[in-house]
Amino acid sequence: MAASPTRSPGRPSVTDHAAIERAAFALFQEQGFDDTTMDHIARAVGVGKRTLFRYFPSKNDIPWGQFDQSLAHFSRQFDAVPPTTPLADAVHGCVVAFNTFDESARDQHRFRMRLILQTPALQAHSAIKYEAWRRVIAEYVARRLSLSAGDHLPRLVGHVSLAVSVAAYEQWLDEPASSVTDLLDEQLTALRTYLA
What we know:
- InterPro entries: DNA-bd_HTH_TetR-type_CS, Homeodomain-like_sf, HTH-type_TetR-like_transc_reg, HTH_TetR, MftR_C, Tscrpt_reg_TetR-type.
- By secondary structure, the chain is an all-alpha fold.
- α5 packs antiparallel against α9, α6 packs across α8 and α8 packs across α9.
- The longest helix is centred in the last third of the chain and has 23 residues.
- It is globular and about 55 Å long.
- The N terminus is likely disordered.
């Protein structure tokens, strides 16, 4: 098939978030996160830097993938919970479901989480992402309890859920044979048992 006359020879007609992530992760692994630039990634993908910025506003956003879409899905998961479901069960189930991924993506997800949790340059950016994730939970808890998302209890549930999730991921990174969803389920159950 003939190439489009408006496209440079050798340049792919389209790219996507996944292709950019794969190229970026390969570079991060090869030369380190700090030493990889957006120029390096753009060259590896075969696109201009301006095109790259349309997919990811910064290098720090790449390890987070399509996080805004994931958060929208997370919120929809809570919206789908029957109103008769106990609040703790709803939060527990949605947090585990949010962290469920296809087994074929395990290695890439492990590398993603290692970057997010262990790269000092990403910590400030990660705090912004964590806050958005906690807010989804706080807003759900607030709706269920007729409170404001900024009230103490909804905010606390968001923070505790994040802490349990981070602890599960840290354990998963240390124990490659483990399952992050099993660890999350166990730790959320243990916390609920302890608090009861």
